[in-house]
Design brief:
The complex is a heterodimer of chains A (398) and B (105). Chain A has 398 residues and is an alpha+beta fold. In chain A, 35% of the residues lie in helices and 13% in strands. Chain B has 105 residues and is mainly alpha-helical. In chain B, strands 1-2 form a two-stranded antiparallel ribbon. In chain B, strand 1 and strand 2 form a beta hairpin. Chain B has helices at 27-36, 44-60, 66-73, 77-83, 87-95; strands spanning 2-6, 9-13. The chains are: A alpha+beta (398), B mainly alpha (105). The structure holds iron/sulfur cluster (SF4) (2 copies).
Chain lengths: 398, 105
């Protein structure tokens, strides 16, 4: 197939923004696959219809996930994209690479695939775009030799991902990189061999700024927090004031729980009322810092709106000390219980958050053996019509 | 779509190698399909799983969920992958002559 004119794609080169088309043009001379990709895309733009067939089951031996099968429905016209499978590769925690290893990955993909990558997909994986069924196993072997493994796809534990945490960020309340790595190792089976009703994601954020948006994008979200008081360096507060910061307007008045005071000398926080929103700490990083008694809050049930609308996570465990091996062990046990209940009662393609909505939080907590705690709710209920359970009634009568 | 020879007869398969018409399936076809999925030899448990999948499919028109499959056959997921290294969906379902599963197994 001779190179086809692509006037509509050319349009995307105009304007000040980076363009994926520019990247594709760069490789099309040496990659017939990319040439056909451009041709098919131009067709799609003209006809306003996608030309990838839905679904495909391909993979590497021993794994049930990690490769997303993709086939063109214009195979006669564009034979070089007859197969165009995507491989997901488990990224290092917080995306730390050496330039050397990035070159090696690029070389592997240049040899076995289209050479096109997406760094990174929204789950966190490196996404290697476009190869043929025959090349899957050799690519997998070549990646393994460099110490890389495939990530998750389908109804599996998706590749865990975390914020940069203590590697670069002073606000990290726990070691996100370590926990992310430990979880990845612990749950290798769940990551590679589908056993769930649908996907399950872990995301780890070191503090409530939640830089990996775990509260909205992961089924189980582990967000760093602290138990004691916000640390205040009053001398640094004075420095900010001297430098012209309007502390009253920019910090105190914006505190969502109105628990801060500033008297022109120093800042006072009523820590009991603080909701750990991070605002004041973000604005005055030199003067304020999270407390010293640090750990994480475990939340459950978020998902993006693919089916049935978006959900935010709710608090499951208000505080866990991640430096205490016993507490981490308890967390793994809890996760096991959650997966068992979901596996037994979840419908096909039902996320954990949807299951909780369907059966109700109290049934769910009872099933996973967790006592309800006040921190799980955002406000007391104002509707008094509640059906108390029978045994509770009896207890009261006694 | 392509036509290949499986179990001594011409059978249509899709690009992932799944046979298109479940009625074309028999044990000889299964034996040839097994070779394409890295299965060295079809043992007793291989056949047990393959027949389970086929019966389930003929009865309900879909593949069973993986958890159910393991539970009802008394197989661990690990064992299923030992038998069918390309997994229950790609491997076992293909050998059982099911059309390509969409999201189940
Ligand atoms: S979530 Fe918090 S700890 Fe993690 S990178 Fe963002 S600000 Fe830093
Ligand atoms: S973290 Fe948020 S709620 Fe807490 S004191 Fe600062 S601004 Fe107020």
């Amino acid at each position: 197939m001779a190179k086809r004119d692509t006037p509509m794609l050319d349009e995307l080169l105009k304007g000040p923004y980076p363009s994926f088309v520019k990247e594709l043009y760069k490789v099309q001379e040496r990659k017939p696959m990319v040439q056909d990709l451009l041709g098919q895309l131009e067709d799609s733009y003209e006809e306003r219809i996608g030309h990838w067939k839905h679904g495909g089951i391909v993979g590497v031996m021993g794994y049930g996930g990690g490769v997303i099968g993709r086939y063109s429905d214009l195979q006669d016209k564009y034979p070089n994209v007859a197969h165009f499978h995507t491989m997901r590769v488990n990224q290092p925690a917080a995306w730390f690479y050496t330039s050397d290893i990035l070159r090696k990955i690029a070389d592997i993909w240049e040899k076995h695939g289209s050479g096109l990558t997406n760094m990174h997909g929204s789950t966190g994986d490196m996404v290697l775009l476009g190869t043929t069924t025959d090349e899957l196993e050799p690519t997998f072997q070549a990646l393994a030799k460099e110490g890389f493994d495939l990530g998750g796809s389908g109804s599996v534990l998706r590749t865990p991902s975390c914020c940069v945490g203590p590697a670069r960020c002073e606000w990290a309340c726990y070691d996100t990189l370590k926990l992310c790595y430990d979880f990845t190792q612990e749950y290798q089976d769940e990551l590679h061999r589908p056993f769930f009703p649908y996907k399950f994601k872990f995301k780890f954020s070191g503090c409530p700024n939640d830089c990996v948006a775990s509260i909205a994008r992961s089924d189980m979200s582990i967000i760093g927090t602290w138990k004691d008081d916000i640390q205040i360096d009053q001398a640094a507060v004075a420095e900010y004031a001297k430098a012209g910061m309007d502390i009253q307007a920019d910090v105190i008045d914006i505190c969502p729980s109105k628990c801060m005071k500033y008297d022109g000398e120093g800042i006072e926080v009523d820590n009991h009322e603080c909701v750990h929103c991070m605002h004041c700490i973000n604005v005055m990083p030199k003067a304020l810092a999270p407390g010293k008694e640090r750990g994480a809050t475990i939340l459950l049930g978020a998902k993006a709106p693919i089916m049935d609308g978006a959900l935010l996570a709710s608090v499951l465990v208000p505080f866990i000390d991640l430096n205490d091996p016993d507490e981490v062990e308890d967390l793994h046990e809890l996760i096991g219980n959650i997966w068992d209940f979901w596996g037994e009662h979840g419908k096909n393609r039902e996320r954990i958050g949807e299951l909780i909505q369907r059966v109700g939080m109290s049934t769910f907590l009872e099933a996973i053996g967790l006592e309800p705690e006040p921190e799980m709710i955002s406000a007391p209920r104002d509707n008094p019509y509640i059906f108390f359970k029978e045994e509770e009634d009896e207890e009261e009568e006694e | 779509m392509a036509t290949v020879t499986l179990g001594g007869k011409d059978v249509e398969i899709d690009e992932d190698g799944f046979i298109q018409d479940p009625n074309e399936w028999n044990e000889d076809v299964a034996l040839d399909l097994a070779k394409t999925e890295g299965v060295e030899e079809m043992g007793e448990d291989h056949w047990k799983l393959v027949h389970y999948l086929r019966d389930y499919y003929l009865k309900f028109g879909i593949a069973p969920m993986i958890r159910k499959l393991c539970k009802e056959n008394g197989f661990s997921l690990k064992y299923v992958y030992e038998m069918f290294p390309s997994g229950p969906a790609k491997g076992a379902c293909k050998v059982a002559g099911l059309p390509k599963p969409t999201g189940c197994v």
